[in-house]
Amino acid sequence: MSVPVYQAKAELFRTMGHPVRIRVLEVLQDGPSPVRDLLALIEVEPSNLSQQLAVLRRAGLVTSTREGSLVVYALSTTDVADLLAAARRILGAVLTDRDGLLAQLRSQGPQ
Length: 111
Prior knowledge:
This protein is an alpha+beta fold. The chain has helices spanning 5-16, 19-28, 35-41, 46-58, 78-94, 101-108, and strands at 33-34, 62-67, 70-75.
């Protein structure tokens, strides 16, 4: 028996519902990145990053390839970047400068 679409969507949003995972997806919008570069950009412990990358990989949101001794991650589809952009637009539309978040969203530009 297949899962209803609304349930699959809820699972997708649960998967994305972690700040480190969102940050990884934001960084990967600029193109594939080796784990060492992700670690430099995302201030978390290596084991935490590894765990979050595994969750994203299992969900099919990122892919990984080995290039020599490096493991390189990339978005699995440009639709992931489109979803992040839509989230940014929604936040911009519904927030009214709550603790400066709106100003921060605007100053960061598209991500």
